[in-house]
C-alpha cells in the first residue's frame, strides 16, 4: 500500500471542494436548458449530474495519487455519487441524486450509532489526531454528531421533496456545508472542557 503523504492544503481543498463548486456553476449555467440525446430529453440538472460523476472520480483519484490515502468518508461519498448519480441519469429522474445526501448522512449516523452502542467512539478513530480529547469528550461529541447527521438526513428530505431543484442545489452546496461548520463551531465549550492536558494525560 502507498504511504500516506502530505500535500499543499490549497491543492487538497481544491480537489475536495472543486467538483462541488463546478457542479454549482454548471447548474446555474444549464438549469434552464433541455438537451435531446438519443431521442430522449434531459434537463440541465441531469446533464450536470452526468458530468459531475467523472469529475468526482477524477478528483478522488488525484487525491489518492497525491496523498496515497483516501478516508472511508471519501470512498463512500464517491461510490454513492456514482450509484445515485448514475441512476438519475439512466432513469432521467433527479430524485435519486437528491436522495444521496440523505443516505450519506444516514449511513454516517448509523456507523457512529453502532459504535456508541458498543461503548466506542468511531469518530475518535478518524479525528483523534486533529482534536485531542478525553474519552468522555469523544463520547459526547460522537453522540451529538450522530444526532446531527440524522437531523441533516431529515432536513435534506424535507428540502428536496418540498422545494424547487434550484433551492435544493443552493441548500446542498452552501446550506449543508455551513451547517457542518456551524456544528463544530458550536462545540467550542466541549473542546475546551474535555481537552487533554499538555502532558497528554486524560
UniProtKB/TrEMBL annotation:
Keywords noted in UniProt: Cell inner membrane, Cell membrane, Membrane, Transmembrane, Transmembrane helix
Keyword Transmembrane found: yes
Membrane topology: Multi-pass membrane protein
Short name of any one Pfam family annotated for the protein: IspA
Methyltransferase is among the record's keywords: no
Entry's transmembrane regions: 12-30, 42-66, 72-91, 103-121, 141-160, 169-190
Annotated GO CC locations: plasma membrane
Subcellular location(s) of the protein: Cell inner membrane
Recorded superkingdom: Bacteria
Task of the protein: Plays a role in cell envelope biogenesis, maintenance of cell envelope integrity and membrane homeostasis.
Cross-referenced HAMAP family: YciB
Protein family according to the UniProt entry: Belongs to the YciB family.
Protein name, entry field: Inner membrane-spanning protein YciB
